[in-house]
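Moderator note: this is an archived Q&A kept for reference. The question asked for a predicted structure of one protein chain; the sequence and the answer are reproduced below.
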Amino acid sequence: MSALIDHVKTSTGFAESTVSAVWESAVAFMSLNLRNGEKVPLEGLGILKATDRAAREGRNPRTGEPTTFKASRRPKITFSKSFLTLVQPDPSQPQPAPAAESTAQSVAPVPPVAGIQPPPIPADLLAQKTLSHHEQTWQIKAPDSSFVEVPTSELAGWGVNASTPVYSPSTGWKLAGKVPELVGIVK
């Protein structure tokens, strides 16, 4: 499973098959539009477009012999300013020394980005009921339907129980009773 699909599955609570199907559909949509010469705007990321390269004469880099390169179409992405801002290092955080490239894939929790709401609560979590310590903050839906960030120690004061959906970037949406860190905190 790719790191992207694993992250989306974890952060939304959707099944891997659902996330994979959505991704395959998005790739099919993008490739069809690029094949037709259309731009594909990717909200929050940038614009994907195809650039055509004409057939041209060149040299084989290994042998130096003259050759003809076929015409081709290549995808190109132009990132939006907002996305470029998001990927810049946080100046208030110390930057780790560059590590040697690793072949192992690990999925690290993504820290929350200011101004971005958590994804919708999956319907299957709203119907479940179950049971689940460590001081961190959780997003919960307040009575006025807004999302509020609440430290672990204050969850009970907000009426959070085992069947209340809670969100953190490391767990995604889960019922509070299913989060190991909340065992003994919520009833």
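Archived answer notes: The first strand starts at residue 40 and ends at 42.
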